């Protein structure tokens, strides 16, 4: 006879709905008061953290990409634009930090677009909570990614010889300004994430916006070397204002005019694109 | 608890909504009594999902009005949201999160503090047989488990009105029965349920009243019994051994049943409706008589079945056109995004 071994694998227990068990969860209790706007936003922020916990690969974008950017441009341009990569880095690091983080902001739009595709936003949109909370919370999660990216770049910079005169306080202030701007700029992407049909088209649009915005700026070279018409654009570009502010505070001084413009741009992005985003979000 | 409302849970008048050229809702009227299961029955692309999305405040109608417990879904959307819950056709929970995390997240958003939210999540997972899976990501759940976590998420706040959009599409029979039991329990606790389905037997099993929807409007409304008697209570399907005997079989059947007989594309198959209103015999007695007459006429029957009218047959009877097929649904969903 064959050695028929009976596998004693436990059959998955079959769920039988029980009226009593269901009755205990169906009894209508008193409804708790609605959470505050901030409370709801923070709860959605907690969701973003849980997603990072379950899908840590998504941090690849905010770690590997910035490292590559720093190494690539420091050694590509360092010799040509300054006496050495190390000298160039003193000028360049705040700029590449801004470039990398501003580029990462587009993932807010990609993430939102994917979420909507999956249907979970249908549930969020039928909840009686402060309407922007789902989006604000999502951006709160993204802000953590921005901070992580900035810290990674700072680490690489320090290892390569970046020595900011502003010290810990100056660097922290620089990252703070960067985070304020990135939070505001993320609302551009929530808007595109809502109006565009696929994550590919969000990526496509973001490249068309981000490349001119980050490269036509004072990130890589001083604007004084550029033709007049280009200087005109570079000087009003919010990324230039941001880079000037961050450079100033990291080197221990300040650039009040640039910082003022930067904050004005940030307020403008939240006001205009936040409003457009909520208009689309409510009217889908 | 006095939260429950008697009277009408939903009153919709002349709802319209277009997506480009497609008129998904073409003047839909609905009156759903509170405390019942109400079925929206129709084929893919009939406008069921669009209707649910409008009533659940996810989509604005182009025209017409809709009130949920007396509150307008457009101007008082926030009040409506406080009383309804939606389980959509696609997972309306976060697939990357675990079962517990999803329910705690939603409980917190409904205002429960963390310990209370955890307790509520654990109780719901237990009642829905998901305790063992509570720490697994929802994307690893089976189809039936996903539906259950979806419905559990929808009753976190014991809504007064629950929308279930095709809750059993794609489920195996056992999971479907589980969902049916849950729906029965939910409605027995006073929640009104608006259920969309493509299956007549599902509407029949669960719904107190049914609206048949086609091309964005309600074409028939009533209790399951009323609808079925308007269509005839059953259909006889026959397969003959010899295709040459089909003309003779058709004649025998027509005389025995006194109804038109359909000849299917298959050369040995015939179908006929039985149990029409006004007949002196019920459906099974009519079918038995027809079978006897066929045997006496020497016609060999290989396969015989008596079933309830299918959705297709209800449609054919109500609209004189067959239920529209699948791809229109995708257009509607695409447009609803």
Can you describe what's shown?
- The complex is a heterodimer of chains A (284) and B (337).
- Chain A is mainly α and 284 residues long.
- In chain A, helix 3 (60-81) packs antiparallel against helix 4 (85-104) and helix 11 (238-250) crosses helix 12 (256-283).
- Chain A has twelve helices and no strands.
- Chain A has one domain (37-283).
- Chain A has helices at 19-26, 37-54, 60-81, 85-104, 106-118, 120-125, 133-160, 167-195, 199-215, 228-236, 238-250, 256-283.
- In chain A, 74% of the residues lie in helices and 0% in strands.
- Chain B has 337 residues and is of the alpha/beta class.
- Chain B has two domains: 8-223, 3-Layer(aba) Sandwich (Rossmann fold), CATH 3.40.50.300; 234-307, Alpha-Beta Plaits (2-Layer Sandwich).
- Chain B is built from twelve helices and 14 strands.
- Chain B has helices at residues 48-55, 77-81, 99-109, 114-127, 143-154, 173-188, 200-206, 224-231, 246-257, 283-296, 311-319, 327-336; strands spanning 8-19, 22-33, 37-41, 63-68, 71-72, 84-87, 161-165, 192-197, 209-214, 217-222, 234-240, 261-263, 269-274, 301-307.
- In chain B, the strands form three sheets. Chain B has a six-stranded mixed beta sheet with strand order 6-7-8-3-9-10, sandwiched between helices. Chain B has a four-stranded antiparallel beta sheet with strand order 2-1-4-5. Chain B has a four-stranded antiparallel beta sheet with strand order 12-13-11-14, covered by helices on one side.
- In chain B, helix 3 crosses helix 4 (114-127), helix 5 (143-154) packs parallel to helix 6 and helix 8 (224-231) crosses helix 11.
- Chain B is elongated.
- The two termini of chain B are 37 Å apart.
- Chain A: The chain crosses the membrane at residues 59-82, 88-112, 133-162, 168-195, 202-221, 260-279.
- Chain A: It is a multi-pass membrane protein.
- Chain A: This is Transport permease protein.
């Amino acid at each position: 006879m064959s050695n028929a071994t009976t596998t004693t694998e436990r059959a998955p227990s079959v769920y039988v709905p029980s009226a009593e068990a269901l009755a205990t969860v169906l009894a209508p209790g008193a409804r708790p008061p609605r959470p505050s706007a901030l409370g709801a936003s923070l709860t959605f922020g907690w969701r973003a953290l849980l997603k990072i916990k379950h899908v840590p690969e998504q941090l690849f974008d905010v770690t590997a990409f910035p490292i590559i950017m720093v190494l690539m441009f420091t050694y590509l341009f360092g010799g040509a634009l300054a006496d050495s990569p190390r000298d160039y880095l003193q000028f360049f690091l705040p700029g590449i930090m801004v470039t990398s983080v501003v580029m990462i902001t587009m993932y807010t739009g990609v993430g939102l677009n994917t979420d909507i595709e999956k249907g979970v936003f249908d549930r969020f949109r039928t909840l009686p909570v402060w309407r922007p909370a789902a989006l604000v919370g999502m951006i709160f999660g993204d802000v953590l990614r921005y901070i992580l990216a900035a810290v990674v770049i700072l680490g690489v910079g320090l290892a390569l010889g970046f020595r900011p005169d502003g010290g810990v306080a100056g660097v922290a202030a620089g990252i703070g300004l960067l985070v304020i701007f990135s939070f505001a700029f993320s609302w551009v992407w929530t808007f595109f994430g809502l109006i565009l049909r696929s994550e590919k088209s969000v990526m496509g649009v973001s490249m068309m916006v981000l490349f001119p915005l980050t490269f036509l700026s004072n990130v890589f070279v001083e604007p004084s070397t550029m033709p007049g018409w280009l200087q005109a654009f570079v000087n009003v570009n919010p990324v230039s204002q941001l880079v000037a502010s961050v450079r100033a505070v990291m080197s221990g001084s300040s650039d009040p005019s640039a910082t003022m413009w930067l904050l004005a741009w940030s307020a403008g992005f939240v006001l205009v694109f936040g409003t457009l985003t909520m208009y689309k979000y409510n009217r889908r | 608890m006095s939260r429950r409302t008697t009277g009408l849970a939903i009153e919709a008048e002349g709802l319209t909504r277009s997506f480009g050229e497609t008129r998904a809702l073409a003047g839909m009227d609905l009156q759903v009594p509170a405390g019942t299961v109400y079925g929206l029955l129709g084929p893919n692309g009939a406008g069921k999902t669009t209707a649910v999305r409008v009533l659940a405040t996810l989509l604005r109608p182009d025209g017409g009005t809709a009130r949920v417990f007396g509150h307008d879904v457009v101007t008082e959307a926030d009040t409506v949201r406080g009383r309804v819950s939606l389980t959509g056709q696609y997972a309306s929970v976060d697939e990357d999160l675990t079962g517990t995390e999803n329910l705690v997240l939603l409980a917190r958003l409904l205002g429960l503090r963390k310990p209370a939210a955890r307790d509520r999540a654990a109780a719901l997972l237990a009642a829905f047989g998901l305790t063992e899976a509570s720490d697994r990501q929802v994307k690893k759940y089976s189809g039936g488990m996903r539906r259950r976590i979806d419905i559990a998420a929808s009753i976190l706040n014991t809504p007064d009105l629950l929308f279930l959009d095709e809750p059993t599409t794609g489920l195996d029979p056992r999971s479907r029965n589980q969902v049916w039991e849950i729906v029965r329990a939910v409605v027995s606790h006073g929640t009104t349920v608006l259920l969309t389905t493509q299956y007549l037997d599902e509407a029949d099993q669960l719904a107190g009243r049914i609206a048949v929807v086609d091309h964005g409007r309600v074409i028939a409304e009533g209790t399951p019994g009323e609808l079925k008697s308007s269509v005839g209570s059953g259909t006889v399907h026959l397969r003959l051994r010899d295709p040459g005997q089909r003309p003779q079989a058709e004649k025998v059947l027509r005389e025995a049943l006194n109804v038109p007989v359909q000849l299917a594309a298959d050369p040995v198959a015939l179908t006929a409706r039985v149990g029409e209103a006004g007949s002196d015999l019920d459906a099974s007695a009519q079918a038995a008589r027809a079978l006897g007459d066929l045997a006496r006429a020497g016609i060999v029957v290989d396969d015989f079945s008596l079933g309830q009218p299918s959705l297709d047959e209800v449609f054919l009877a109500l609209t004189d056109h067959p239920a529209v097929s699948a791809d229109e649904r995708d257009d509607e969903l695409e447009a609803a995004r």
